[in-house]
Amino acid sequence: MGRSSFAFFVARRYLFSRRKQTFISVISLMSILGVALGVGALVVVLGVYNGLTTDMRDKILGANAHGIIMSYQPSAFQRLPDLRERALTVPHITGATPFIYTECMISANGGVKGIVLRGVDPATAPEVVTMLGKLRQGSVADLQRSEGLPGIIIGDELARRLGVVMGSRVNLLTPSGKKGATGYQPDIKAFEIVGTFKTGMFEYDSSLAFVSLDVARSVLGLPEGFLTGIEITVDDLFRADIIAADLANELGSPFYVRHWMEMNANLFAALKLEKIGMFILLAMVVLIGSFSIVTSLVMLVMEKTRDIAIMMSMGATRRMIRHIFMLQGTIIGLVGTLLGYGMGLTLGWALRKYRFIKLPENVYTLDHLPIIITLSDVLIVGASAMLLCFLATLYPARQAARLVPAEALRYE
């Protein structure tokens, strides 16, 4: 029998063949359960974090593009009307649509509200701003009307606040008015609601509205061909920064490109910090389980002093004795980690399938607890648990290997 086989054989016997050391067995069981609970909790909580972050990212990108082409000179877009087609020739750019951005006031019988008004191209906008392809009511094509009042699309929350429905009339007060004898007079334009949307993000649903590009220029008194920028989509969200840099190099001055990671950097940095904090907090549960491993092994060393002395007298080296107790702690950690995987993955599957934890829609961006468990998170949790359990074995194993056979057997 080789050294490693001998160490594993003895470690397994000590763990699973005890008859008299019931108390030590209970401590070992508690160690396994402590590790399992920590691993299971980490798997579920990180899965929920991933679900919430992904849902928030999808909602943000549903109302915004992956990147925006801007210019230091507002008239640059008028001089280069084919800029959208040029952008689409750059590798990894999958869509592009022009837009106009401004802020104004909207009024109806229900009151007045400040909003962000976006002029879009009804033909190309749904390919880039996915929210416009999933309206709750109406269609983005209705923005391009030839008869009646110009159309406008607003969020559900804004419609509720103003007390309006599909077909209602609203007025936009824009900053393009003129100064008259009685003072500054804002320009007031009437619109008809032709669509509503709901993203689940209160900021968007309560303060965002869409009109067509031509109407936006007319309302704001802008020249033909004027644009605020061009929104783009890419084929890989997580390479948006690299693709944006390539696009900026292709277009050259005076254009520059901003991507979604840059524009939402503060939000996602805060979420990432929260994930690290949750990981550290729940890793403490695994740490408590590893402390139980220390207790269990120290008591076992005290109980098996005579056995250790006999094995060393028969030729077992200090290294072999050390390996026996390190293997015991590692086995406890492995069993606890596997059990935690089973608990965490089962609970995660149940949460995803049955959605039995409901969330208030007026507080959160969705009505159930989302969960996305990734392989990388599962492996990191398992590796962290095993590392803590292994470190917990070092002191007891070292103490066992330091026993002097003659001293240990003197009082037997």
From TrEMBL:
Protein transport among keywords: no
Topology term for the membrane: Multi-pass membrane protein
Biological-process GO terms, alphabetical: lipoprotein localization to outer membrane; lipoprotein transport
Keyword check for DNA repair: no
Residue ranges constituting the ABC3 transporter permease C-terminal domain according to the UniProt record: 280-403
One Pfam family hit: MacB_PCD
Subcellular location: Cell membrane
One annotated Gene Ontology cellular component of this protein: plasma membrane protein complex
Predominant location category: membrane
UniProt keyword annotations, A-Z: Cell membrane, Lipoprotein, Membrane, Transmembrane, Transmembrane helix, Transport
Family named by the database record: Belongs to the ABC-4 integral membrane protein family. LolC/E subfamily.
Protein name: Lipoprotein-releasing ABC transporter permease subunit
